């Protein structure tokens, strides 16, 4: 799936800008589980000239769910995805990132 997304976007920079700009945003305690939440931010092209994020977003969420279910990977953390529509626009993405 990642190869497909990369092919559609073209350059490595464009892929990072439009699809999987993953940034660790914040860690905070989650008292009910005794785990810290680890937020991962991402920009996905959900609309615009190529709404490929509609295919990539479920894969990213599935990956986070699989990590959260495992006890041998980041056992003290619960990953949560926060995403935004990049609209397939580098100019728009820059306003979101900065």
Q: What is the overall silhouette?
A: elongated
* Rg calc: 15 Å
SSE-based structural type: alpha+beta
- How many helices? The count is 4
Order of strands, main sheet, comes to 1-2-3
Brief descriptors of the model:
98 residues; three-stranded mixed β-sheet; 4 helices; 41% helix; elongated
Task: Give a topology summary.
Elements: H1 2-9, H2 12-18, E1 23-30, E2 35-44, H3 53-69, E3 77-85, H4 90-97
Architecture overview:
The protein is an alpha+beta fold. The chain has 4 helices and 3 strands, in the order ααββαβα. The chain has helices spanning 2-9, 12-18, 53-69, 90-97, and strands at residues 23-30, 35-44, 77-85. A 3-stranded mixed beta sheet has the order 1-2-3, with helices on one face. The chain is elongated, with a radius of gyration of 15 Å. The two termini are 28 Å apart. The model is unreliable at 1-29 (pLDDT under 50).
Task: Write a short abstract of this structure.
This protein has 98 residues and is α+β, with helices and mostly antiparallel strands.
């Amino acid at each position: 799936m990642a190869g497909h997304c990369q092919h559609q976007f073209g350059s490595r920079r464009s892929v990072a800008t439009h699809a999987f700009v993953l940034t660790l945003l914040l860690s905070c305690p989650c008292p009910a589980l005794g785990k810290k939440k680890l937020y991962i931010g991402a920009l996905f092209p959900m609309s615009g000239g190529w709404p490929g994020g509609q295919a990539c977003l479920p894969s990213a969420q599935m990956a986070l769910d699989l990590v959260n279910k495992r006890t041998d990977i980041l056992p003290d953390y619960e990953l949560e995805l926060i995403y935004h529509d990049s609209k397939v626009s580098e100019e728009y993405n820059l306003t979101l990132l900065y």
